[in-house]
Amino acid sequence: MIPKHLDGFGSSQDIPAFDIYDGFSVSWLFQYISRYEYYKGLEKIASGTGSKRIQPSSLFKERVLAPPLLEQQKIAAILSSVDDVIEKTRAQIDKLKDLKAGLMQELLTKGAGLDGAPHTAFKNSPVGQIPDDWEVVPLVDLCSKISVGIASSTTHAYAQKGVPILRNQNILEGSIRATDMLHISQQFSDENASKKIREGDVLTVRTGYPGVSAIVPKEFDGCHSFTTLISRPKKGELDPGYLALLINSDYGKKFVVGGQAGGAQQNLNATTLKTFPVILPSLDEQAEIFDIVNSVSSKIVCIEKKYRSLVSAKKALMQDLLTGKVRVNVYKDEAAAALSA
User: Which segments constitute the Type I restriction modification DNA specificity domain (predicted)?
Assistant: First the structure.
């Protein structure tokens, strides 16, 4: 659909523009062709090799199941209102993510302070200016263990019910997603007992999206992970939440990108992770920094869940309204208003 501010502009041959007959609502037609099912159907009329194209002449032959104009307009208004809510929710998520990024930058360079007392003295370090009483320490010195989860084939050990094994897709920035979970037999788990993960371990993705990290929650204590990096912070020295936060920060991402190996297949190995320079406040301040950022992260997770629900609801609504499965009533006063407009 051409927005008002582009009225009168031309279009390229790869993006043909069409005039719509008066009997159709442009907004309704836009929603109609935006349906995933309709889009997939267009693949059948695409032609060419490599980058396929749909010829305008082929589009002209497409049949559209259309209700009366007034019903089209009401359907378009309903779907557009949902689009507005989705867009506002997306903008809210983006604002919170910007806030989180700004908070992390501020807290990892100036600190949170304790008991309302901000830091007043700073010093230069290999990673830039930090509070005077902070240190920069290699991760290996702050962990009792940095290793790799099960790296051999696990296909033969898969079980309907057994010990959960976390994969890359289960590890998000700061949280574990317990969907699409695989399980391995108890026997295979016991054979790899030294690779079991524990509550408070930090799991870090090695390949694909290297550096993405999350803390192992209580419910996955004693489970396994597949080819992920496992860091076990020393109690009393390094807070697991703070470590995951640090690796997921822009600072951590720059380290991962700068230290990765493997060319096209991005790969972070244990040897590299051991050298990660941890910006180290006191244990209490580590926990304070984590709590501040985590409060924003929790809001983001909550609103992202709402966003996914809205997108799913919009998809179902489109399927019902744009296929005629559910009809929309147009009342007399609405019809009169439309005719007088």
Answer: 40-96, 131-305
In whole angstroms, how large is the CA radius of gyration of the chain? 27
CA distance 72 to 90: 27
CA 123 to chain centre: 36
What are the structural domains of the chain? Answer: 135-280 (3.90.220.20)
Token pair of 44, please? 């059948």
Q: CA 175, CA 298: separation in Å to the nearest integer?
A: 10
Question: CA–CA separation, 103 vs 108, rounded Å?
Answer: 8
Look up the pTM and report it: 0.76
- Which residues of the chain are modeled with pLDDT < 50? 1-12, 261-265, 336, 339-341
Q: What CA–CA distance (Å, rounded) separates 251 from 106?
A: 12
| N-to-C CA span, the chain | 22
pLDDT in tens, 263-297: 444 679 999 999 999 999 999 999 999 999 999 99
